[in-house]
Design goal:
The chain is of the alpha/beta class. It contains ten helices and eight strands. The longest helix is centred in the middle third of the chain and has 22 residues. The protein is globular and about 60 Å long. Bound molecules: S-adenosylmethionine. The site of S-adenosylmethionine (SAM) has 23 residues, from α4 and β2. Pfam families: FtsJ.
């Protein structure tokens, strides 16, 4: 397969490289903001599940770019995986299901609350739709829990959601905390993907609500009665496509040379992953060792910040696969 074939098949992948975004997901946040104006008056923001960092890039470029004093903008990015540094972004390598992560975020804000929390979190999908939807819902609820620790009254929360058959339960839970909840599908998100995004505005936790990470929300039964809610008890959340209709369609193939645009030139990915999950498997492949053989001098025991430069364990093709998937 030629280097440019992916550029042709996925216009947002190509544009991401041309504009210097680490992943095509950048366009999802840009299009959500165009529709919902979520960046307005935001100086403190948390980016949950942030690696490799394209949403943090959008936040950094937009918020710091428009601020009189860029240093007044605080962006905290959290992910299980390490990511390469970004201007004005503090990174926490941690698990969003842990209380300690909420405390780390609060420490970085030095007593301030965030006006916006975004979460593009996704578990490793198995292909078993029910399971994937369930795990994704749990991740979203973990993000909501952490949000209740750090978000200011009136603030906004944006998170990836899989619109499966039990999504009504999630809507109902979000409506407990926010007066406005909308579901949106940016043009840059493939139609073939089950993902959408909830945009929750005006954070108003119930009177007396005490944020906790061992929240009963996570333990509610996902089956049964939620499906039977009717009338005023059933939360109907409006659905909006976002991204101008003239924006590129994520499922279409476009010619490399587009009318009225500069000559096409191939770009390498902006920031290859610094510690990809597939690195150990690749090392086994390259050294021709069976998968159960312990690898002693590989990425798994090389300090994170040196992996990208000292251990040639991932190919450009692999990096492109990862970036093109987001
Ligand atoms: C689709 S990627 C995010 C892409 C990112 N928004 C960007 O624009 O570059 C999903 C991320 O969720 C992270 N993730 C999944 N479960 C997590 C958890 N429990 N805590 C923190 N991060 C998690 C993964 O490590 C992965 O980096």
């Amino acid at each position: 397969m030629g280097r440019s074939s992916k550029d042709k098949r996925d216009v947002y992948y190509r544009l991401a490289k041309e504009e210097g975004w680490r992943a095509r997901s950048a366009f999802k946040l840009i299009q959500i903001n165009e529709e919902f104006n979520i960046f307005k008056d935001v100086t403190h923001v948390v980016d949950l599940c942030a690696a490799p960092g394209s949403w943090s890039q959008v936040l950094s470029r937009t918020l710091r770019g428009s601020a009189e004093d860029p240093s007044s903008v605080k962006i905290v990015a959290v992910d299980l995986q390490a990511m390469a540094p970004l201007p004005g972004v503090v990174q926490i390598q941690g698990d969003i299901t842990k209380t300690s992560t909420a405390h780390d975020i609060i420490t970085h804000f030095q007593g301030h609350s965030a006006q916006l929390v975004v979460c593009d979190g996704a578990p490793d999908v198995t292909g078993l739709h029910d399971l994937d939807e369930y795990v994704q819902a749990q991740l979203l609820l973990a993000a909501l829990n952490i949000t209740t620790h750090v978000l200011a009254q009136g603030g906004s929360f944006v998170a990836k959601i899989f619109r499966g058959k039990d999504v009504t339960l999630l809507y109902a839970q979000l409506k407990i905390f926010f007066t406005h909840v909308t579901v949106t599908k940016p043009r840059s998100s493939r139609n073939s993907s089950i993902e959408s995004f909830v945009v929750c505005k005006n954070y108003r936790p119930p009177d007396g609500y005490i944020p906790t990470m061992v929240n009963p929300l996570l333990d509610l039964s996902y089956q049964g009665s939620w499906q039977d809610l009717e009338g005023v008890n059933r939360t109907i959340v409006p659905f909006l496509a976002c991204g101008d209709l003239s924006a590129y369609d994520a499922d279409m193939t476009y010619p490399l040379q587009m009318e009225g645009q500069a000559s096409y030139r191939y770009h390498t990915p902006t920031q290859p992953p610094i510690s990809p999950a597939y690195s150990i498997a690749l090392t086994h492949k390259h050294t021709n060792t069976p998968i159960h053989t312990p690898i002693t001098t590989t990425a798994s025991n090389t300090p994170l910040h040196t992996q990208a430069t000292t251990t040639p364990i991932h190919t450009q093709e692999q990096d492109e696969e990862q970036h093109s998937a987001m």
